[in-house]
Amino acid sequence: METTPEVMQPAAPTPGNWKIMMAESGIGMFFLRVCLFLINLITLFLAVPWTTVMYYNAWANNALIDGKRIKFTGNAGSFFMVWLKTLLLSAITLGLYWIFVGKKNTARWVDSNLTWA
To answer: Between the CA atoms of 90, 95, 97 and 103, what dihedral angle is there, to the nearest 10 degrees?
Structure first.
């Protein structure tokens, strides 16, 4: 008797508890963004890698996907090279690099540093 292999069916989408976009809202995140901007302004934007990591740590603490928390594992040292490359290439190309590629560099870096908590 032959048996047919079982075919995995994709799971139906569940109406779980998703708080991704809302993770950056609220009065606490507003004040955090203001404080981080002031730190960047005072340091002539040299602190951008560190303030970026602080922002995404706070964001990940507020994000919720299907009832599970996510954790941001990035650090300023790993973001520094991404930031520096984007900054230099954007200056050389008069901002065109930022428009077409630079924004995605940061998003790729953030995505690569997210794990389940």
So the answer is: 90
